[in-house]
Amino acid sequence: MRLYEYEALDIFEQNGIPVPRRGVASTMHEALHVAGEIGYPVVLKAQVLVGGRGLAGGVKTASSPDELKEAAEKLLSSDIKGLPVLKILVCEKIEIAKELYLGITIDGYSGKPIVVASTEGGMLIEDTAKTSPEKIASTHIDSSFSFYPYQARALLRRLNISQQLISSWTDVISQLYNVMMRYEALICEINPLAVRPNGGLIAVDAKLEIDDSAISRVRFPLPDRIERIENVLERRGKEIGVTYVDLDGDIGLISSGAGLGMASTDIIGEKMRPANFLETGGGITADLLYKCMELIMMKPGLRAIFINVYGGINPIHEGAKGVVRYIKEHNVKIPIVAKALGNKQEETWEIFRSGGVHVVTDAATEKAIDRLYELVGRG
Amino acid sequence: MSILMNNSTRVIVQGITGRIGSIQAHWMLEYGTKVVGGVTPGKGGTIVEGLPVFNSVQEAVKETGANASVFFVPAAFVLDAFMETVDAGVKLIVIVPEHIPVRDVMKMRNYALEKGVFALGPTTPGILVPGVGKMGIMPASMFAPGRVGIISRSGTLSYEFAGILSEKKVGQSTVVGMGADPVVFRNLVDILELFEEDPDTDAVIVVGEVGGEQEEKAAGFIARRMTKPVSVYIAGRHSPQGKRMGHAGAIVRGASGTVAGKHEALRAAGATVLESPIHVLDWAVKHNLK
Q: Which residues of chain B have a CB within 8 Å of the CB of A342?
C-alpha cells in the first residue's frame, strides 16, 4: 500500500524527522484556512499516488491569498496522469541551500534492505546513478536487520561532505530506518531531503509504501487499504479478492494467474484491445467467478470475454459453474471464449459449453485468442 | 535426468490436514511422487490420503526418512515452520503460499543460504520432473518427459509453456517455479546453473515477467557461462507503470523492470527472445529439441 505524501509526512514527523508545517485541504476554502495559519508564501502539492508530479504541474507556489485561490482551484480541478486531484497539501515554503536524497528500500536480488544516500537530491535516483554515480553511496543491511549509527556515518563519509552534515544526516537515517521497521515498509524515501541555510535538515517530500502482506501486523494505525483505490473497478476487485487493473480496450479478461493474465493481455493487444487485466490467484470458487463476471461486465462497451484458467491449485470446474450461472441469469449475449486446462478439464469444458461458451482445447493461448478474433474482429 | 528432485526424493507435506494440502497431497501421490508423510502441529497421529501425520518436522524426518518438504501452510505461520524444517535437516523446501511478508522471506532466505538449503518460492507452483514426481501444484496433464528445462516466475505460464511443447511431443527434463515475490529464495542464476550442469537437459526456457531485475542479472551469466540454448519470454508489455499485476513482484517502477529493458539485456547476452509464447515451437525446431 502506497501512502499519500501527507500521510507519510505525519508518520515521518511522529518518528522524529523534521518536516514542514503543513495541512491538507480538499477545497479552496480549506486551503485558504491552512495557509492563513502557516503564513505565506506556501507550496501547494497535488496528492496523487503517481511519480513525476512536479513535471506534470502538480506543485505550485502562492505568496498571497489571491495567488493561493487561483492555484488551489486549478489543482483541485485537474488530473495528474489520469488521476483526479482530490486533496492538496499546503506546506510552508522552505528556504533550501542544498537538496539531498535518502531512500531505504528492499533489494530484491540480494534479499536485503538497502540504504541509498546521494548529494544529488530532487531528481530520480536512477538518473543520478547513470549521470553521477560518484554522488551516490549505498549499503546493505544484514539479516539481523540491525542498523547502527556508525554504519550510517561510514556510508555518508563516502560522499565527501562536512562532519556537521554527516552527523545530522545520520540522525535522519536512523529515524527513517525506524519507520521502515515499524511500518513493514518496502520503500521509505525522502527526495529531496533539504539542507536549510542554517545547516538543519528537513524532509520536504515523503514516500512510503507498506508491504500489503504485512499490514495486519503493523502495530500503528494505518489508513484503509481498499478505500484509497481511486478506480471503482479496481476497488471492487480488491473487495472480492482478485487483482483487477483497468485498461482502455473492450475485450474482458478473467485469468487464474498473474503471468497467464499478463501474457493474455499481451496477446489480445496484438490485434485487439484488452479492457482489463484480472487474475484470481489460487482462490477460485463458483461464487468468485460469478463475481468476476459481474465485475468485468461493469465496464461499458465490452465486445467479448476471454477466460483463461488452469486447474493446478484451482478447482476450475467449480469456477465454470459460476460463469455459466452468471451467463444464464443475465442473459449475456457477447461471445465468451474459454481455455481451461489441467485437473478436471473435461468436466470444466462440459459446463462451459452448457452456457454457450466457446471452448478452445489447444495448449496455446494464441489459438484461443485467434478464435476470439474470428468471432468479433478488430472492432 | 533432472535437477533438484529425483527418485530418491522423499517428500513431506506441511499443512497436509488443510483443504488445499490434502487435495494437493492426493494429486502428488497420483503422479507417482514419493510422498512419505505430512506435518500439522497438533494433528499428529492422524492419517491423510493414507499418509501418517506428525506433530513436528523432526519427528516426520526421523520416522519416514524424508529429505524434502512442500508447504501448504497459512502465510502467517510459514516463517516458524520454515525455520523448523531447516533445523530438522531438510535440504529441499518448496513454499507454495503467497502473501508472506517480505521481511519474513528475507529472514528465511538468509537462514536457508547459511544452512545450505535449496528453497523455492514463495508464490511458486513448485517443481515437477515428468515421470518422476512433483512437489507443488503443477497440473500433471500439461507435462511430458524430455530434455528441455523450464524456469518460470509464474505458475500458470510454466504450465502454458510445458503444454505448448508437450502438445508437439517436446518433453521437459525439469520444470521449476522460482516464485513471484519481490524477494525469492533463489535467484534465476542459481537455477540456470543447475540446468547448465545437468547432463539430461539440452536447452532452457526462462519465463519471466515485468518487475525486479532477475532477468537482467541473469543476462551476464547467460553470456559468460551458458553453453546450452536459452530462450526467454517476458510477460507484461501492456502493464501500466506503477500497477502491481497480481504478483507482488510484477510492478514497473519508473524505467526499471520493463519488458523492453529485459529484452535488450537478454538479447545482448545471446538468448533468444520470444515475443509470444507459441514462438517457443520455432525455437524448439531450430535446436532440434525433444
A: 139, 141-142, 159
